[in-house]
Amino acid sequence: MDSEGNHWGKPFVDITSDHLLVGTDSEIQSDHGDEPLHRGESARLWRHVNLYEVELFHGSYQKYQFAKHFHRVPAIGVVDRGAMSTYCRRENHVVGTGTVLLLNPGDVHAPAPAGTSGWSFRMFYLDPSFLATISPDGQREIPRFVAPFVHDRELANKLFRLHVAMESKGQRLEFEDTFVSILLDLTQRYAESPSSSASVKQDRSVIGMALQYLETNYHRNLSLADLANLSAYGSSHFLRLFRETVGLTPHAYLTQLRVERGMSLLQSGLSIVEIANCLGFVDQSHFTKSFKKILGVTPGRYASCFA
Questions:
Q1: Partners of 95 in the β-ladder
Q2: Of the four listed, 3, 232, 242, 264, which is most buried by Cβ atoms within 10 Å?
């Protein structure tokens, strides 16, 4: 930490091109927000060639506000400068430098400024298969975190040092050793015990079926009744359960699914009009607005990266 107490360790190091994440390989929704980056802000997403199962993100912001979004894989990280406010698990939080971020798959969150000085954070997005291979005692089940934000200086320092190390050259065994140490800390201190409640398992099963249905039918003009009919619940009860479990309404979740599919189709060279039609958006304008709200850039600008 510097003399002002804001930065940890060395400054951000440029990584060489062979360490950069190829855009077509990414399943992480990066740069989610309602507006483009402002002057002086930056965001980078990459993989290290010697540990390709892990995606890394480093963002530094002043005014940027993320839209509510989620990730499909476990995401852990640390705030390394300033403080940010964020929605998570139906509550608003303010988290400062040194806070460890522990997001389960599906945890809806939306970082935003907590003041005028800005903030920076570093994230690891972990492939479940990689987590399973390094889990202690051969456990195959991915741990779920009790709380999304914790204050643990030892763990924060481990995460920060590893993230910085993966900005430059390094060996796989070195990185894996550190991840095993981190995972042991997480499992022992912050992982929840498996729920034995039959009702909780039933509710999760219902929502799981609904999510699978949305994944398969994202291009259709769906109704709330279509989803509720997958369960024994009425539409009102199902909507409340979905929102409480997922953290988004079914419509918001469906919109993110469509935008994700749109990212892949833009990389394939299809026109924006064609994509909007096949994804189920009302028109091109509707697709463009939704895409920019979630990703922070227009479909046209995103597509230009792959031209």
A1: 84
A2: 242
